[in-house]
Amino acid sequence: MNLTEWWGKAVYFFLCAAIAMLDIGRIEIPFLNLPFRSWSVSRTTFFFWLIWKLLAWRRDKSLRLELTPKSVSIPLLLFVGWVSASLLPNFAHAEDYRYFMFAVGHYLMVVDVFHDDRRQSLLYSLLALTPGLLLARGIFADPAILSLSLTSRFAYPLDHANSAGFLFSMSIPLCLALILGDGKWLRRLAVPSFLCQLGALILTFSRAAWIASCVSLTSISVAEKRLRVLVSVLGVMGLVAFGVSSELRDRLWSLTQATKDSRVVYRADVMANAISVGLDSPFFGHGYGRDHLRAALKKKHPEFAAQGFVSHTHNLYAELIAGVGLLGVAFFLGTLASAGVQMLRKIAKRAVSDKERYADLGLLGALIAFAVAALGDVPFYHHEPRIFFFTLLGLICLRLRPKTAQPDSPS
Fold first, then answer.
1. What is the pLDDT of residue 68?
2. Are the C-beta atoms of residues 11 and 53 closer than 8 Å to each other?
3. Domain boundaries along the sequence of the chain
4. Which helix or strand (DSSP H or E) is residue 34 part of?
5. What is the torsion angle, in degrees rounded to the nearest 10, for the CA atoms of residue 319, residue 324, residue 327 and residue 331?
6. Disulfide check for 328: which of 82, 216, 286, 333 has CB 3.0–4.6 Å away?
7. pLDDT (tens digit, 9 = 90+) per residue, 150-159?
8. In the chain, what is the greatest distance between 2 CA atoms, to the nearest angstrom?
């Protein structure tokens, strides 16, 4: 085995480590105070991936890219280009853009490295199973989260409870698909992981994540009878949990009284103002990222901006309207719709085994959860949900690739 092949295996190993860390959370080295997170491992791996491709080109005069013309959908390509163009001519305040482009690089690595069925199965399992470990880490760090209190929401080791809820809403459909479609030994891992993820989702007190998970599971259960039974059981379990805790009930019931919640009203005002400044520049928007949003709000609505610091709009679509304009949002929605419609067509054909069909339903459910949860948060500004989404998008692309179109790779 030559240097290039060893290098390729190292890239594969560290990319797997980055994806596993999505669902394990940040790791801190004692005494050195050095935290490692999924995005930092992925970012470093990206540069080694580029070096690997250059080594392959030097040896074989070929980059050995396992990419096909369909690896990057046209809407996704246009969206990435539009995000870049929104920062022209000087790319000022590009920190959020830098994180975004590293996530796109992560997507390309996933599509290139996880090219065969065995690796894709491992990738699916990593996304579906490892989030269950987050609950154990969270309880160990703060046992108070078990008090079912809004003041002790589940967040650690992620940066915020909403980020954790966002991630669980995407991983739960994947784990449920493993329970239904995989072998006994993997099912034995999937069942406890699923229960841990479901419990952690409840403990986040994230209303957007709750709604996204419900919509996602209900949507995929329409296509599969066995899922309807499980989703019904989960609904009963959820009702029991909410019946036990008055704070959970109050949190859920607050959705019906949103106009009386000052925080919800303020976020709605931020969304409305963000959309209004976006419509002033509907072609390229005001530039991707939070700094550009704040500058645009301060310019058009100085009185509102003076009321307090605006972190973001808590709505991905409103954020994109302000940042990249209506066309940019259309390209992003086209990316989601293209992936979702193609998955639906594949599922409807029933041309694959039950195991693969359940896996496809899980991926579709995770995509639906992302689209719904994005109405209540901006996942592109949080490391783990952002990398999870682009990993999910890459895996969907790989699952849609014709089997005969999958080239072999020596690495």
1. 57
2. no
3. 75-258+312-405
4. strand 34-36
5. -80
6. 82
7. 888 998 888 8
8. 66
